[in-house]
Specification:
Blueprint: H1 10-16, E1 21-26, H2 40-55, E2 59-61, H3 83-98, E3 104-109, H4 115-127, E4 131-135, H5 147-156, H6 174-184, H7 203-224
Parallel strand pairs: 1-2, 1-3, 3-4
Helix pairs in contact: 2-5, 2-7, 3-4, 5-7
């Protein structure tokens, strides 16, 4: 696996930039119930980027962006959000800077609340003829701090999961919850911050999810690259 961007010197990066794609993990610092750390989304994004780098020697992983658009989690202690406008501007400017060195940039975001501002940022960058792509893993059911995210964290960093504190949250589908979430945030539908049921989370299922997302990411990455580099 290639070393991460922050581990290299400027001349080392210059020597390999023409043949490398910069991959930027984007997460959040937000509540994930009483049982998961605030770093959950960031850790998942980093894991996916590292797995891509392990499969491709033309990937260079940037330091993770650990702050995102998490306003829907306001009211839960520890949540730190920079909002949609700031995230959109940050990504546009960060990628413009990256394109001083790299020809292609891939954004990997593991927080759903980042999707709208990141999509707008990508649209702006593409309008400037910059080769940028966005990947966001998604799944059906348990949208936040439930079975899926808890299983992935049990697979990645079980020492950070407090399973004895896990409990069922709001079990309605995201489609049912979305109108209230948009107007009142997560606090309006659950006092625990959980959307789903993490109580039966399983590290093996977490490994399966990560492998599935990684395979999809690798496929999309390979498809995105020019055929001579695939």
């Amino acid at each position: 696996m290639m070393p991460q961007l922050a581990e290299l010197t400027s001349p080392e990066i210059e020597a390999r930039a023409a043949d490398s794609v910069l991959v930027i993990p984007i997460g959040s610092t937000e509540q994930h119930g009483p049982h998961l750390p605030l770093s959950t989304d960031t850790e998942v994004a980093v894991a996916l980027c590292e797995r891509l780098a392990a499969a491709r020697d033309d990937v260079l992983v940037a330091p993770a962006l650990a702050y995102g658009s998490s306003g829907e989690h306001a009211g839960f202690a520890g949540t730190l959000s920079i909002g949609q406008a700031a995230l959109e501007l940050l990504i546009v400017e960060l990628c413009r800077s990256a394109f001083d060195t790299f020809h292609r940039v891939l954004l990997v975001s593991a927080h759903g609340g980042n999707h709208e501002p990141l999509t707008r940022a990508v649209r702006q960058l593409r309008a400037e003829s910059r080769a940028v792509q966005l990947f966001s893993p998604s799944w059906d059911g348990d949208p936040h701090a439930g079975h899926h995210e808890t299983s992935m964290m049990l697979a990645l960093t079980p020492e950070h999961v407090r399973m004895e504190r896990a409990l069922p949250g709001d079990l309605r589908s995201l489609a049912e919850l979305m109108p209230t979430l948009r107007t009142g945030g997560v606090r309006a539908v659950t006092d625990t911050g959980i959307l789903g049921d993490p109580t039966h989370a399983d590290p093996e299922f977490g490994h399966h999810l990560l492998e599935t997302f990684s395979a999809t990411l690798l496929h999309e990455f390979t498809t995105w690259l020019p055929s001579e580099r695939a």
